[in-house]
Every structure is written in structure tokens, then in C-alpha cells.
Amino acid sequence: MTVTYLGVRHHSPACARLVARAIAELRPAHVLVEGPSDLNGRLDELLLGHELPVAVFSHYRDAERAATSWTPLCDYSPEWIALAHGRAAGAEVRFIDLPAWHPAFEGRANRYADAEARYADATARLCRRFGVDSVDALWDRMVEADPDAADLTARLETYFDVVRGDTEADPSDRAREEYMASWVRAARAAAGDRPVLVVTGGFHRPAIRRLAGRPPADGPVTGGRDRAWPEVPAAPEDAVVGSFLVPYSFRQLDAFAGYESGMPSPAYHQWLWEHGREAAGDRLVRSVVGRLRARSHPVSTASLVAARTSALALAALRGHPGPARLDLLDGLAGALITEALDEPLPWTRRGPLRPGSHPVVAEMVAACGGERTGRLHPDTPVPPLVHDVAARLAALGLDTGEPVTVRLTDPSGRDRSRVLHRLRVLGVPGHERVSGPSHGTDPVVEERWEPRASAGREAALIEAGGFGARLDEAAVVALGDRATAAGADCGRLAEVLFDAVACGATELAGPLVARLRSGLAAAARPGPLGTALATALGLWRHDRVYGVARDPLLGAVVDTAVSRVLWLVEGAGGGPASTGPDRERLRALAAVRDACLHADTLLTVSREAAVDVFRRVSNDPLAPADLRGAAFGLCRVLDPARRTPDRGAGEPDTGRRTPERAEPAVAVRAVSEPRVLGDWLAGLFAVAREELGATPGERGPLVVALDDLVAAMTETDFLVALPSLREAFAYFPPAEREQIAARLIERRGLRGSSRALLRTTADPLLIAQARELEDHVSRALDRLGLGATR
């Protein structure tokens, strides 16, 4: 009995041909393939007769972690050839790798991600030795350019031995290799005198061969009824685990689209697999020319002749029996691109096509990539979610492919909206929301959904089945994962919150509430918290559109956000120097004000405790000026009993008032320094602009105090104060600014239009600077005796 180890590169046509030849020549008893061993009982399902490419989608979820991964297969995948040809030859075919949920695959979304990519030093040395720019170019030159070479097997063994070298595998690779070696030992014991063929990634081949020659570390393997096959690890009892076939596409397989494993240019390699090198080259050229001419890009016969000549010359120079993929691409690029390129051609490196690539290059890459999408056999099992979605769409009349308009105040309309939002959250294509409310207090009560291209819908639904068996459950789990991924990013958490409301997921709060609260409680700045707080508070107070007013999930978010904002603002520093008002932070404080006034029953922090915080901030000389102004205003808004009667403009200040008890006119004089005055006012106006007393019938002592302060400023001080003062008064709507202007005109005993006063012919700051410059010049002329004669 012999064991033949074939090390392959995933998705390599040359390796696939090598596997097919080995099966035909050896007629092995067992064909062992790198792949998920927990699928061994479902190989008939895998071989139903699908249109490739397809992938095995696996999902895992427990209380600690969630993971998904794909095992893609196409017509020219060596693993697929091993399965299909091995079964046809009468061999017993087995997957021998650990299941996708196993911790050895932690952080790996693709089972067939190239192991040699993790050992880049060896591949870099080989690239330098062969004078090529990338691993893909090296592989094309060594293997795909001459797949019928007599020494191909030896060449591959040498390549993978060099890549692996004496490097110690990481723990995950070591666990996988030891497990695969145990299958080899079991097959060797069961095969008698017949051969065994082992097909794995070439990087793993040396280690598996070495390990398979050793006795098992843990004694005899157990499992099969007729023979001792290794035991397939069982998932933890509390975990949700599953694997299903999904359609895959050439775009997902293409390294130029960001695929981390296998070969670039899948369409070209499909032609190479089906028709050979010469026919594949002809198809590549025709496809590129067709795409360019379809986009009105001229391609002359002379250019094609030049491209062909260049490709033949490059093939001869590189020692290829005929033009290979890179020879053709380089020849076409040289003939069709006449201007200088900003970066190297994409096939000289690994990774996706970069934005801004030359249009001809982009079309060449697209032509080589292709647009094929696989199709599953009708008898392929699918997760329960697929059936649940189909039933819900049919029951609600959403399966017609027509535009959908729903009225959210109608319970039936809300049900249809929730189903469509849940599919959106799960990333299932089919409908796109083109209009509707953007938050809970938005007066819009209708949503419009338009049908969109549904390419990838089947795969997306199957993959969404990893979140749950029912659509509502799946959406909640997906939202919980988004909340976890958002961490303390309050903007993203606010998006999760709104989506939870739109999906009707608030009644299923549980872990989602915990994740939202955890993220908000970890926020490092008060500003971003304001978005989540304002969203939650608005929905809790007002929303009738989505039916979540007074919802406990929203109440929990409000309470957490308010507590966190109070904690953060009390520790805020920055000193008295002006840095401009922090508008995000001020919006958060305005949201805290509203929560204290209108939702105090939700809060674990009492209003009195909040006022104490703001009193300390308003007294803190090291706090930013805008924060001190906001804190002063919040003390007055949240604890009106502490206000003192208005004083007349001429009454002296006795000095007995604490800042929060002082009148605004008194408090503003304490921050009259030009560089901080506007910031302090911006904070005050952001949370309590009524303190200016701009409405008719009030005496408005703050207006008087501000007018006196500004009038007493030197022109230089006024120029310093003007930008921040303008920003502060931007908190007033136009009508209120006009009332303030009217009061100032009246105070000076003048007559005129306040509206005209607000409509200057130029930027007021520019006007003030020009006037200051003119006065400066006049003073200089007077000092030198050159002034105008009076």
C-alpha cells in the first residue's frame, strides 16, 4: 500500500489536472481531501449536480463568539476534482480537515486562504530569484504557463517545500495538520494493498506527510463501524452551528476583487480549464476588445497585431511554450495604453484593483474576472430562514417584485415595513428604501420601497440563516452583532438603535439592550453620545410612526447616555482659552436637558444631582468656556426655584449670588474677556437661549449687559470677540435675531429697519477688519502730521 501526497494551490487548473491524472492512474481506495470533515455525511448533497462555483457556508455562534466562513469550489478547484473524480472512480472520498467552527479557524473567513501568504519571506525570495513581481506572477510562470510539463509534480513539491521550509507552523495550522494526519493513518490502515491519495494545500503537505508516519499521540482513533476513522469534533452543546451550500460567483473568487485565496482572473482560468491555453488566450483578447468597444474606446487592428506580437515575444523571453495570462495582459497593456500610468499594473502585485485605475486596465481585469454566478440544484437543503422569509413575503404580498408603498400608522403597513427592514438589516437584496422617516419624530408617515437587482439574493438568504431560523430573530441577532462591532462608536450605535426600531426589534430587547448600553457607557466623549441620546429620547417621547413610544429599550438607552454625559462633562478640561464652541457636546447637553425635563422617570440620576454637576462645572475656571455657559444655563432651566428676581440694569451686584443663582447679566460680566465671551454665550444659548430675554414684553437685562460690554470694547478686542459672538448668535432663528436687533436700535434711540441691519453687503467680520484698518491708518497719518486738515 502506498500513500500519494499531492500538494496543490487552491483554484489552480494545473493542479486540478494533476489530481485528475493521479486518480485515473492510481485508482485509489481512498481519496482524502482538505475540507470540513463534518460534511462527510453530506457529500451526496455536495455532488447533486450544481452549476459551479458554489461554496460551503458555515456559521457558529455561542455566548462568547460568532464566526462565519466559506469553503469555495469551482470547476477547476483541485478539491472539487478530487471529490468528483474520486467518487466516479469508486474510491471512498473523505474530507479530513477540522470543522469550520473549530477554534483553529478563528479569524479566518475563508478555509482556503493561502497559507504561504502568512510566510511571505520565502515567497519574496522566490520572486526575486525568478525576477517576478508577485506570487501570482511566480505561479503563472512556474505552473500555469506549462501545465503539461513532465516535471510538474516535482516542481510543485520543491516549491511548497521551499515555502514551508523549516518554519514552525502556528498553533492553528499545527492543530489542523495533526488532525489531517490522523485521517491518513486511518486510511492507510484500512486500504490494504490499494493506494491512498491525499489532496491538501501544498503548504500543509510536508507536515502531514511527516506526521502521518508517526504513531498517534492519543492512542487508537475511534469512530467508524467498519474501521477506526478519526472522530469528528462535536460543537459545544450551547452553540448554534450549521453548514449549507450557497451559490458563489467569479467575482467572489477573484483576487482582483479582494479575494484572499486562490487564483486571480477566474474567467480566464475557466477557459484555460475547459479549452486549453491557446483557446483561453483568444477568449481573453476577444473579451477585452469587446468590452472596450462597447464603451466606445477605439481598438484598432494594428493595436491588436502589436499586442499579439508583444505577447509572443514575452512568452519566448520567459520560456513559456505559448502566450500565458501575464504575457497576454502585458502585451495588451503595451499596445492599448499610450499614456503614463500612475501606479504599476495590478497583475504585478496582489490585492484588489485600486480606485482610479486606468479604464483600459479596469476593463482588462473585468474581462479576466468574468461574471459567472453558480446555481444550486433544486434539491439542495436550505436553512429554515429561507422558508420563513418566503412565507412572510407571500402572506404580505411582498413577493411580486413591484414597488411597495406602506403607511406606517396603519398596523398592516407597519408589518410590511418591518419585514422589509429586517431583510435590509440582514443584507438581503431585492428592495431598496427610497423614502421614509429618518428618525422617530420625523413627520413623514409613509415609506417607499423600490425593487432592485436581486443578484446574490439566494446566497444572502442562506447566509442570513446563520443568525436564526425566523426573520425577526435573525434581525435581532444581526443588530446585536452590529452593536458589538460598534463598541463605543455612538454614531454607529444610534444607527443600530434606529434600525432596531424600524425592524420592530425592541420587544426582543435582551442582549441587544445590553450591548447598546455597554457601548454607550464606554463612550469617551460627550459629543457623539448626543446623537444616540437625542434619537432614543425623541423616539421614546413622540414616536407613533413605528409604535415604540415609551418603549423600555429606548428608556434604557436614555438613562445610560444621560449618566455617561454627566460623568464626562464634569471631567472635561481645556482651560479658559477659546477653542471655539464644541457644537456636538452642546447638542448632547441639550439632549440631557430634554431628558431631565421630559423623561426624568427613566433616569437613575435625579434632577437635583444633575444640577449639582452643572453647578460645579459652571464654577470651574478650568472648564471650557462653552461648557461653563451651558452648565450655567442648565442650572437655571432645571432648577428655576434658584433664580433670583430680576434686577434693573442699573442695580449694583452685591456679590452674594453664586453663579447659578446669579442673573445672566451678572454672570456674563464675569466672562467678558473677548476671547471667551462668545464661547460662553454659545453654551448658554445652546441650552437656554430664552435667557437672553428677546421676546417682546421682557426687559432683557442680558441684552443690555451685552450691549454695554460690546460698546466698551476697543476695536481690537471687538475683532477678537466678533467671530465667536457671531457663532453664538447663530443659535437664534432669523425672527429672534431680528427682535434683538430691534431692541438694540430702540435702546440707542434710533429709527430704522432691524431686518436691513442684519443684511449686510459683506461679511461683518470683514467689514469690522476693514474699519479697524482704516482707523489704524488714520491714526498713523495723524501721528506723522499727514492727516487731513480739519
Number of strands: 10
**Tally of contiguous helical segments:** 32
The low-pLDDT segments are 219-226, 643-661, 694-699
Distance between the termini: 120 Å
Placed side by side, the strands forming the largest sheet appear as 1-6-2-5
* Secondary-structure class: alpha/beta
Instruction: Report the portion of residues in β strands.
Output: 5-15%
What characteristic shape results from the CA principal axes?
elongated
> Strand count, sense and closure of the main sheet?
4 strands, parallel
> Helix proportion of residues, in percent?
40-55%
Could you report the average pLDDT, rounded to the nearest whole number?
84
The whole-angstrom Rg is 36 Å
What does the model show?
The chain is an alpha/beta fold and 790 residues long. The chain contains 32 helices and ten strands. The strands form three sheets. Strands 1-6-2-5 form a four-stranded parallel beta sheet, sandwiched between helices. Strands 4-3-7 form a three-stranded antiparallel beta sheet, with helices on one face. Helix 7 (171-190) packs across helix 8, helix 18 packs parallel to helix 20 (511-521) and helix 22 packs across helix 23 (583-598). The longest helix is centred in the N-terminal third of the chain and has 20 residues, at 171-190. It starts with a strand and ends in a 7-residue tail after the last helix. Residues 219-226, 643-661 and 694-699 have low confidence and may be disordered.
